[in-house]
Amino acid sequence: MMKRPLELWGGIECTVARVGDEYRDQSLETGYSDRIEDLDRIAELGIRTLRHPVLWETISPEGPDRADFTWHDERMAHLQKLGIRAIAGLCHHGSGPHYTHMLDPAWPELLARHAANVAERYPHLDLYTPVNEPLTTARFSGLYGHWYPHGTNYESFLKILVNECKGTVLSMRAIRKVRPDAQLVQTDDMGKTFSTPLLSYQAEHENQRRFLGFDLLCGMVNRDHPWWRILLDHGVSEADLEFLLEGDAAPDIIGINHYLTSERYLDENMKRYPEHHWGGNGRHAYADAEAVRMPLPAKDLGPGARLREVWERYKRPIAVTEAHHGSSRDDQLRWLVEVWNDVNTLRDEGADIRAVTIWSLFGAVDWNSLLTRRNNFYEAGPFDVRAPEPRRTALAHAAEALAKTGTYDHPVLDRAGWWKRDIRFYKRPSKQSRSCWLADEPRQILITGATGTLGRAYSRLAEFRGLNHVLLSRQDMDIADARSVKEALRCHRPWAVINAAGYVRVSEAENDAERCLRENAAGAEILAKACADRGIPLVTFSSDLVFDGTLDRPYVESDEVNPTTVYGESKAEAERRVLAAHDKALILRTSAFFGPWDRYNFVWSILNTLSKGEGVAASVDIVSPTYVPDLVNTSLDLLIDGGTGIWHMANLGEISWRDLAAQAAERAGFDPSLVTEAGDLPVLNTALSTERGILMPRLESALDRFFFDSEMEWSEKKLNVAAE
């Protein structure tokens, strides 16, 4: 019998979670709720099965007999028109509307009433997930206290889990009265716990517990099951356990979600780990850390190992129902492809795995705090919703390739993700491992500007991210010499070029115009022509000084340039020449660099002067400072996405040089009154904003991280000043 092709499904992060008395709706926070055209974007990727919300809290928020399907009617009809099969999610990490909660004995029947309403409204639906991740939701809501009803003990945890399983059974019974062939796609996170020998008992307990939701639904928790007695001892009724023994809602497809944090390592030697990992079980105190950071055998870790365990335990069809990694774009791609490849390996061994689900199509907000804080921390998915219209990322290109051809390639895949490189360890090995090199001749990025702040920063962070690269000085390649450029590109054969070279001395340029124009404009043009001839993406840099500073608001990309300095003119001319030579080039306008790794920036200079006990004067002109690590990481993501054209890339916020100096002084513990104003009116404002999508963090965050990265250095300076 011919094996069915592996499918790529899609998923929309749609959690409606209650934290205290506040509800959070991810469809609202990512903007999906207002963009029905997003479904067309999904269809264009070739995705034909979609995890889509039909959530209880949004349909019957005021009472079980009051249902409003207006929003859902439009989307269900559009999905049918597009030929996309929906997996209807009825409760996604939620505790239900305000009139119930997961510890309410009536909760299962109320959820089933909602399920019946949905089935009657949409009889064409044949795939359902009544409760997303019941075991995980029960832990977060009943054991760890993150979500409502904020339980923090085993009794509430286990009662919530059983209530969720009862609700799933009753929901599927109600649905099948309308649609007898409806299938249950039951999702949950699947990890594993490892430990030191002392804590093996706790690891074994957690490794049994991870299967408990699926075991309950499959009717496997009988009197001989190790958790039968544990459930009874924590207040679960025997009648409820006997009800679940019928197993009539055993999953038709087991949906496995696996994240890098899903696998844990328990160690009583707590001081080896950061304090946020410290905890215990009342019997022993221990650290609970990510297993991927420990020197464990590679075969024991990762999605392939966990999927194999699930297949061997249940022998039921499986789908990966979430494949997502909130990280840099290269590691997001590496994770997706690793999951896809692991699934294909298991299918070759005979496992019935139907699909991998790319998650989340429109990203997610504040999942780094499990929704418990409103920091607006956004993780992009295949689409980045921070643009005026959702912008395709490299994940969208990967999704389309996997959905339509089953394969995908990108140069970043020549190295493994951080979870397989030496940077993952709390204590790095003395000898560097090359097991993360996945290609004999890995493709590389060519970076110019080996002696400059920006070039060195790109090299530093490219190495950290596992991006193979070569860093060239002017002696290695003179960008203003066509023959030198041609030879370097022939020698290094890069898949992309980042031009961080150029003339940077703004004031000196007024008396050195010829050299400034040669290095900034002519050189950028020669490099652009050479890259265009070879079809190589190019990233190059411009400046806020292409503007005259007289606009009464921050500048955006489409504003007319009007430089008033030689340096600004060289950058404006470079923009014109580069875009004429290479229409796919990426030009980044930035402003006022500062960073933690060298001394050639305004913030370091100010703090160095203050550390000597001297005052400083700074201009009141307005700028948008750019934190170099943010610039480098964000632009690397944009390069990998295939970004083109002019982008403004400065940290979000506008500030005078004087106020920037004062804020830096205050954070470093110096007296901000030592910073005074310099310069005459009129005040110039060359602050940068963007109309293409805000990708950079806020300036306040950048300043905080600058001092975190530089803290020891400035602490020592302050101590020296105090001693004097």
Question: Would you mind describing this structure in some detail?
Answer:
Strand 11 (278-280) and strand 12 form a beta hairpin. Mean pLDDT is 94; it is low at 719-724. The protein folds into two domains: 7-420, Glycosidases (TIM Barrel); 443-723, 3-Layer(aba) Sandwich (Rossmann fold), CATH 3.40.50. The protein is elongated. It is α/β, with parallel strands linked by helices and 724 residues long. The protein contains 22 helices and 30 strands. The chain is 38% helix and 16% strand.
Distance between the termini: 83 Å
Q: In CATH terms, what is the architecture of the largest domain?
A: Alpha-Beta Barrel
Average predicted confidence as pLDDT: 94
Instruction: Give the class from helix and strand content and strand pairing.
Output: alpha/beta
Looking at the structure, the CATH topology of the largest domain is TIM Barrel
